Amino acid sequence: MGKLIHGIAEEGTIRLMAADTTEIVTEAVRRHATSPTASAALGRVLTGTLLLGSSLKAFDRLTVKIEAEGDIGGIVAEADPNGNVRGYVRNPAAHAPASADGKFDVSAVVGKGMFYVIRESGFEIGLHREPYVGSVPIVSGEIAEDFAYYLATSEQIPSAVLLGVLLQNSEPFVTAAGGVMIQMLPGANEHVITMIEDTISRAPHLTSIIREGATPEDLLKIALGEVGFDVLEEKETAFRCNCSMERAIRLISSLGEDEVRSMLEEDKGATLDCGFCNEYYRLGETDLEGILESLKQEED
Ligand code: ZN
Predict the structure, then answer these.
(1) Torsion over CA of 2, 225, 147 and 137, rounded to 10 degrees?
(2) In this structure, are residues 163 and 148 in contact, taking their beta carbons and an 8 Å threshold?
(3) How far is the CA of 116 from the centre of ligand 1 (A)?
(4) 149 C-alpha to center of ligand 1: Å?
(5) Among the CATH numbers 3.40.30.10, 3.90.550.10, 3.55.30.10, 3.40.50.300, which is that of 2-239?
(6) Global confidence as pTM
């Protein structure tokens, strides 16, 4: 199980989040069969979304959507208050050669485009309010810098964001993944901010210390150096989608009697593919007959 923590430093003027997302990214890569570059891009977005959503309240939902002009086309990730995150890339095969120092060239497959953050509340219980949507142009395409730019520009929160995915050539492909987000709220001490920036610039790669067994709390210790902090909350995390056979049946039912009848007669069934988790739902003739039966009962 992965772990997500959030905490505070300097009497609440600095907000901290950290997560080990190795299992989440492993599951995402397995489900979407992404190329190494697309895996790094998706893993970073899933991790950043989880960190940004660390203080979501019940019935909240946070979506990060990247509209990319590069080969990857787009990246979407969605986090809920229970530490679950799901996501996908439009083109899982998008790939670029690694840069000279062996790093994934994520910006080469992302290119220019837009970075959106959508905050919704009450959706699951039918109390859908107008979502809050913030957007900024993509400034780097390396993802962490884009999260930081979004926070500084759209939410006026100067932040340090570190996101990492470490891959190997054979299964399970993902050796380590995780991230740290440090948000400087109004009133944060300038001297302390400089100290943290300095510590981060000298810190080792996140993924190499996660691979050696570092916990999210250890990541914060490394990022903050001598600055003390308190952990407020800790939760288990997972790549988990809310699709199900039941939802697939509801979706097919909503198409109406005529449509369901033609699926039954022409295709002898229906297949639904969840974009978020790549799960297939196959409805056979008996399922479709059952749907038709209940649609008729609703009419009576
Ligand atoms: Zn799904």
Answers:
(1) -160
(2) no
(3) 21
(4) 30
(5) 3.55.30.10
(6) 0.93
Please give the distance, rounded to the nearest whole angstrom, from the Cα atom of residue 275 to the centre of ligand 1.
7
2-239 and 245-299 share one fold = no
Cα(162)–Cα(44) distance, integer angstroms: 9
Q: Tell me the per-residue pLDDT of 151-160, one tens digit each, with 9 for 90 and over.
A: 999 999 999 9
**C-alpha 91 to ligand 1 mean position (Å):** 17
Distances (CA, A) of 16 to 40, 161, 207, 227, 244: 23, 10, 18, 12, 34
Q: How do residues 87-137 score in pLDDT, each as one tens digit?
A: 999 999 999 998 777 789 999 999 999 999 999 987 666 666 788 999 999
Q: What is the Å distance from ligand 1's center to 122 Cα?
A: 20
State in words which class domain 245-299 has: alpha beta
CB 110 within 8 A of CB 95: no
Counting DSSP H helices and E strands in the chain, the numbers are 10, 12
Q: Which residue bears the tokens 């993944």?
A: 177
The residue length of the chain stands at 300
Map residue 183 onto helix, strand or coil.
strand
Q: Where are the domains of the chain?
A: 2-239, 245-299
> How far apart are the CA of 67 and the centre of ligand 1, in A?
21
